[in-house]
Prior knowledge:
436 residues, Rossmann fold, seven-stranded parallel sheet
Amino acid sequence: MAWKQWALSLGYVGVAAVLSPWLYVRRRRGKPIGCLYEKCTGAVQVERSQDPAVWWHGVSVGEILLLRPLVRAFGQRFPGRQQVVSATTPTGLELARREFADLPVIPWPFDFVWAVRRALDRVRPELLVLAELELWPNLLVEAGRRGIPVAIVNARLSERSFRRYFPLRHWLREALVAVHLVAAQNETYARRFAQLGIAPARIHVTGSVKFDSGTSANDCEKLHQFRTWLAVRPGQTIWVVGSTQAPEEAMALRIFAKLRRSHPGLRLVLVPRHRERFEEVASSIRSMGLTWARRSEHPTTLTGTEQVVLWDTLGELRVLWGLADVAFVGGSLADRGGQNMIEPAAFGVAPVFGPHVWNFQDIAQGLLAAGGALQVADAADWEEVTRRLLSDPAYRRTLGARARCFVQSHAGATQRTLDLLVPLLAAKGCGTARAA
């Protein structure tokens, strides 16, 4: 397999060369990849003791957030164990450094054979835990050779991803040997991982860790701070439209302008999914002639008269949902597969979302079946549903109560996952076991 590793690495270099003009333009526009040297070489800086570590990895913001309860619970169960966290995207790294300020946080290396070898040399993990789906062949092969067990937690393999990986299953066979645990969100995902060639004995259905994102005392304090900052007045209604992608912000602004005629106390809080779109969304709000403010530009409280608030900071939406009277989860009218609708539901706020929720299909269907969510087909449908929720507080409270009950009934994945990870801490050295 060594020649395959080097061949794959050269293939990655070729792809990078093809993409280099795009990367150059991106950098000129102020959107650099970040930590490029560390990612290309694996020369990550890890300041910790000399003990082996548990290495947790999440690609971006969503995965880092779902790792929070796992890392916290692991630290409580094993207070002296070394832990390292990594992320791929700049926003993921920024959030990880904030969420795990007491732990080493490093950039995830590109899958060049030399980079993964050096990164593993520096971190020296006794266990590598990947969030949701990260099947990088060179990294997995190298982990297997070193006897480092790999776990995929909150594992998800969508139909689209499965169709992409399935033709490569024989080529990935040696890489998948290192995967000692797949803690799948549901039976469908578990079956797909088995079809890729991972032994069924290594696959367990644990449910989604995202159901365990209950509020802590710290979250309650943040929620109070957000309410104070927004200067919410009696009679005002807060409409949070979060994790949005184009053209959802423009839709929301047009709907908002109409709804305010019959609901003058309505305030819109817009939370775009990606940082690079903050300026674009700000321009859209400005063009509407509405009174508005940006979260990042107002360290002190607002006046409470702002009609629209652009929440242009990262990692706060999970708690911000708790302020919503009405919530829309983005990426679902734009065909992006949707975003995490568990977060507003956990606060007792029934999420509204569009038809494109393939990233969260089971959760969306479960919430709808429980009567704790509403799905809309298009902008006109979204406006009608939002109007009804605003006009009927009792109706939205009923839906919200059902949403919270649905979330609470599915809690417990964090502890189930930890129970499966613990045996792997003693499994280093068994990386030569067959995957199937």
